[in-house]
Write a structure and sequence with these properties.
By secondary structure, this protein is α+β, with helices and mostly antiparallel strands. The protein is built from 23 helices and 33 strands.
C-alpha cells in the first residue's frame, strides 16, 4: 500500500483519517514524504493478520534490508525486542491484544546488532467496528538506546574488567538462593583475594595494576569451565557463584586450578610480574541459607586461607571462628615456646644427584606443645607466618642448627631458611657470625636460603646485608626461584651460590611435563652460565626424579629420599662417615596425621558411642575409648558439621582402634581434612528437622531407644597413691 492509500483508507473510531487543513491532498502527501525522508518520522501499517502492508523506505534503508522483501511478511518475524535479556515488551502480545502501544524498542530480527527503533502503533477499526490492522510510527533511537544501555551496564558490571560488580553479584546471589531454596538445589560461593597485588601497584604503577586485573579476569573465566557468575567486588577482591554443586572434591580441584592459573607470570607493558591468590569456599544450604550468611562464611574461609600462608583455598566450617581464636592463642604461645625450650629441629636431607650422597640438610622448626603435642614443620610454618615473633624463631633456629651441625662430618653442609624480617634486621649478620663462632662451624658449611621477597625491602639494606654475608663466607641460595618477580635482576646483583627451584614449578613439571620441564632446563642452563648450583625439592615419584636428573640438577630433595628426621637420626646415619640414600620408588610422602584429641561420635548398630579422636589422616583415624572392639567392625564416624565417614576397624589394641575409611577424606586446601560430601539440610528437613545450616558440632542424633550397646566404654586408668 502506498502512503497516499494509507492516508485515504478509512479506519479508526471516527472513520477515515480526514486531516483538518487548507492544504491539498498532494501538498499533504509531499509534506509527509519530506518528513519520511528527513528521518524525523517514519510510518508503518499491517493488516488484520499482522502482516506488514506499508513501511517507510527510509526505515528499510536504516535497517539495511530490501523493502520488497519485507512487505507481506509477519511483523513479528521482521522485528524483535531490543533487550537481549527478554525484559522488554513482547511485540506479538501487543499485536495480538489489538491494543495501542508506544515506545517499544525493537531491532531487525535479521540484524540483531543493527539499528534500534522505537515503534508505536494504533489499532484500526472499520466503520462496523471490525479490526483491520495497525498503523503506527517509528523513530531511530540507536544512539539514545546505546547510551542508556551503557549506563545500565555500568550500574551492573565492573567498568575495568567487564565482570559483574558488587551490586549485581549481591542481587544474583540473593535471587539464586531464593530460587534454589524452593527447588532444594545447592550452590557454592567462592571469595578470591590476590596476593602481592599491592606490590605490583606500588612498583609498576596503577596502570599496570589495572591491566593485571583485566588479565586476572580473563584467566578466571578460562579456569572455570562450568556455569557460573564471576564478579569483581572492588580492588583485588573477586567473587564466584557456582550453581548446583556441593562436592568439595570438585570445588577443591577447581580452586586449586584457579590458584595455579593466577600465579603464572603476567606480561605487562611496564614489566613482568607474578602474583598469587587465596580462595575461601562456602556452600548453600550447608553453610548458610541467606546471602549474608553464605558470603560471610566464604569470607571467613578466605581469611583462614590467607592466615594459613596464602596461595591456598579453604572450605568454611563452623569451627573456623574458634580455630581463628585458637590459632591466635598458638601465636601468643610461641613466646612461651622460645622461653621454655619447646621448639626442636628436624633435618631434611639434600642429596647429590650423581651419587645419592647427602650433601646438606635443610633445617625445619617443630614445636612440642604442652597441650597439642608435636606440631610438625608444616603446621608450625603456617602458625608463625606473619607473626611478630618470626624473626625471634629464626634467630633461635640459626643458633640451634649451627650447634647441631658442629657434630656432623665436615663434608656435610647445613641449610637454614631465613625469614624476611630476620634478613632485614640490623643484627642479622652479627647473629650468623656469632652462631658460627659459638658452634665452631666453618662459614662455608652454612647455606642461607633466602626468598625473593627480601628484595621487596629497602634496597640499600638488602645489598649491604648480602655483601656482608658474602664477605663472611657463608653460602647463599636463592629460594623458591621461578615463583617471584623479576628473578633475573636478583641474580645479577646478588652473590648467590645456588638456585633452589620453586616446589610448585617442580610439581607442575611432573603434571604437565613439556613446558614446565622446559623451564626447569632453562633455569639449569642459566645457573650453569652464572656458575651456580641448582637444586629442587618435593620430589616423590621415580619418574620426576629421572626427569630432573636428566635436566642436569645437581642437588635433589624430597620424600623419595627421606622425610625430615630428628637430629639423633642424622648422627646415627653419619656415624660411619658419608650418608648415602637410595631413592625408594615405592616411598611416598606419609599420610599426614594431625593430632586432634577431640570428642566425636561413632555409630554401630543404631547405637552412638562417644570416643576420643586421637589423630586423623586421609585414609583413616585413631580413636580411643571403647573396649573389646574386634577387627572388621564397621562404624559410621561423625566428624561434625554433617561430615559422615564409613570406616572399618583394621587394628584394635585395648581401648584404641585404628580405622580405615571407605572413602578417603580430601584436603581442605590448607593442611586440614574434610569429607567430600555432607548430609544435606534438605534431607534433614524432609525427615522433619527445621531447614537450617549444618551445626558445627556433633551431627548424628541416633534414636537409641531399644538399641543395645555392643561395646563397653574403657575405664580410665587407676591412679595409685604413692
Amino acid at each position: 500500500m502506498s502512503l497516499k492509500g494509507l492516508l485515504s483508507s478509512r479506519g479508526g473510531r471516527n472513520g477515515s483519517l480526514r486531516p483538518v487543513s487548507v492544504l491539498t491532498d498532494g501538498e499533504r502527501l509531499a509534506m509527509l514524504d519530506e518528513l519520511e525522508q528527513s528521518g524525523l518520522g517514519w510510518f508503518w501499517a499491517s493488516d488484520a493478520a499482522g502482516n506488514l502492508t506499508y513501511l517507510s523506505a527510509s526505515i528499510a534503508a536504516r535497517l539495511d534490508l530490501p523493502l520488497d522483501a519485507l512487505i507481506g511478511q509477519p511483523l513479528t518475524t521482521i522485528f524483535t525486542a531490543a533487550e537481549s535479556d527478554g525484559r522488554g515488551k513482547s511485540l506479538s502480545l501487543m499485536l495480538g491484544a489489538h491494543k495501542a502501544f508506544a515506545g517499544m524498542a525493537v531491532r531487525a530480527a535479521r540484524r540483531p546488532q543493527g539499528a534500534v527503533l522505537r515503534l508505536s502503533g494504533q489499532p484500526i477499526l472499520s466503520t462496523s467496528g471490525k479490526f483491520v490492522g495497525f498503523r503506527g510510527t517509528g523513530a531511530d533511537i540507536t544512539e539514545e538506546y546505546t547510551r542508556e544501555e551503557e549506563t545500565a551496564r555500568l550500574a551492573r558490571f565492573d567498568s575495568l574488567t567487564g565482570l559483574a560488580n558488587r551490586h549485581r553479584m549481591a542481587s544474583h546471589i540473593e535471587a539464586t538462593l531464593t530460587a534454589f531454596k524452593a527447588a532444594r538445589r545447592n550452590c557454592a560461593v567462592m571469595m578470591l583475594d590476590l596476593d602481592r597485588f599491592k606490590h605490583v601497584n606500588d612498583t609498576l604503577g596503577h596502570a599496570a595494576g589495572d591491566e593485571l586485573l583485566k588479565q586476572v579476569a580473563t584467566r578466571l573465566a578460562r579456569a572455570i569451565d562450568r556455569e557460573c557468575e564471576i564478579g569483581r567486588l572492588g580492588g583485588d577482591e573477586f567473587q564466584v557463584l557456582l550453581p548446583d554443586i556441593d562436592d568439595r572434591g570438585v570445588l577443591g580441584e577447581l580452586a586449586g586450578k584457579i590458584i595455579a592459573m593466577l600465579r603464572q607470570p603476567y606480561s605487562l607493558e611496564e614489566g613482568r610480574c607474578v602474583i598469587g591468590a587465596s580462595v575461601g569456599i562456602a556452600i548453600a544450604p550447608h553453610d548458610g541459607m541467606t546471602r549474608e550468611d553464605i558470603v560471610r562464611a566464604a569470607d571467613l574461609a578466605l581469611y583462614a586461607a590467607k592466615n594459613g600462608g596464602r596461595a591456598q583455598y579453604r572450605f568454611f566450617s563452623g569451627e573456623l571462628e574458634n580455630e581463628t581464636i585458637f590459632r591466635r592463642r598458638l601465636e601468643q604461645d610461641v613466646g612461651t615456646a622460645l622461653r621454655e625450650q619447646q621448639l626442636f629441629l628436624r633435618f631434611e636431607p639434600i642429596v647429590e644427584a650423581a651419587g645419592g650422597t647427602v650433601a646438606s640438610l635443610e633445617t625445619h622448626v617443630c614445636w612440642n606443645h604442652a597441650q597439642r603435642g608435636v606440631i610438625d614443620e608444616e603446621e608450625f610454618a603456617q602458625i608463625i607466618e606473619g607473626s611478630a615473633l618470626i624473626a625471634d624463631v629464626g634467630r633461635w633456629a640459626v643458633r640451634a642448627a649451627c650447634a647441631g651441625a658442629a657434630d656432623w662430618p665436615e663434608s656435610v653442609r647445613l641449610a637454614v631458611n631465613v625469614p624476611v624480617p630476620l634478613f632485614l634486621a640490623d643484627d642479622f649478620v652479627a647473629l650468623v657470625s656469632e652462631a658460627l663462632d659459638s658452634a665452631g662451624l666453618a662459614p662455608g658449611r652454612l647455606e642461607l636460603e633466602i626468598s625473593e621477597a627480601v628484595f621487596f625491602g629497602d634496597t640499600s639494606v638488602v645489598d649491604r646485608t648480602l655483601a656482608a654475608l658474602f664477605k663472611l663466607g657463608v653460602r647463599l641460595t636463592l629460594d623458591e626461584f621461578g615463583s617471584g618477580y623479576s628473578s633475573l635482576a636478583y641474580l645479577r646483583r646478588a652473590p648467590f651460590d645456588a638456585i633452589k627451584i620453586d616446589q610448585k614449578l617442580v610439581a607442575e613439571a611432573e603434571r604437565h611435563d613439556s613446558r614446565e620441564m622446559g623451564l626447569v632446563r632453562a633455569i639449569v642452563a642459566l645457573a650453569g652460565a652464572l656458575q651456580m648450583d641448582t637444586m629442587a625439592g618435593g620430589i616423590e615419584s621415580a619418574g620426576l626424579l629421572a626427569a630432573l636428573t636428566n635436566c642436569g640438577l645437581r642437588y635433589l630433595q624430597g620424600p623419595i629420599f627421606s622425610e625430615p628426621v630428628e637430629g639423633e637420626t642424622v648422627l646415627a646415619e653419619m656415624a660411619g662417615g658419608a650418608w648415602k640414600i637410595d631413592p625408594g620408588a615405592d616411598r611416598a610422602r606419609r599420610a599426614r596425621r594431625r593430632t586432634v584429641f577431640r570428642k566425636i561420635q561413632v555409630i554401630h548398630d543404631d547405637y552412638a558411642y562417644e570416643v576420643t579422636l586421637r589423630n586423623l589422616s586421609k585414609t583413616g583415624a585413631l580413636i580411643e575409648g571403647l573396649a573389646d572392639v574386634p577387627k572388621g567392625t564397621q562404624f559410621v564416624v561423625d566428624l561434625g558439621g554433617g561430615q559422615l565417614a564409613v570406616a572399618t576397624v583394621t587394628r584394635s589394641n585395648g581401648d584404641v582402634q585404628g580405622l580405615e575409611f571407605e572413602q578417603s577424606l580430601i584436603e581442605d586446601g590448607s593442611g586440614g581434612l574434610c569429607t567430600r560430601n555432607r548430609v544435606s539440610p534438605y534431607a534433614l528437613a524432609a525427615a522433619g528437622a527445621p531447614l537450617a545450616p549444618l551445626a558445627p558440632g556433633k551431627f548424628i542424633g541416633v534414636d537409641q531407644r531399644g538399641a543395645v550397646p555392643k561395646f563397653g566404654y574403657a575405664l580410665p586408668p587407676r591412679v595409685e597413691q604413692v
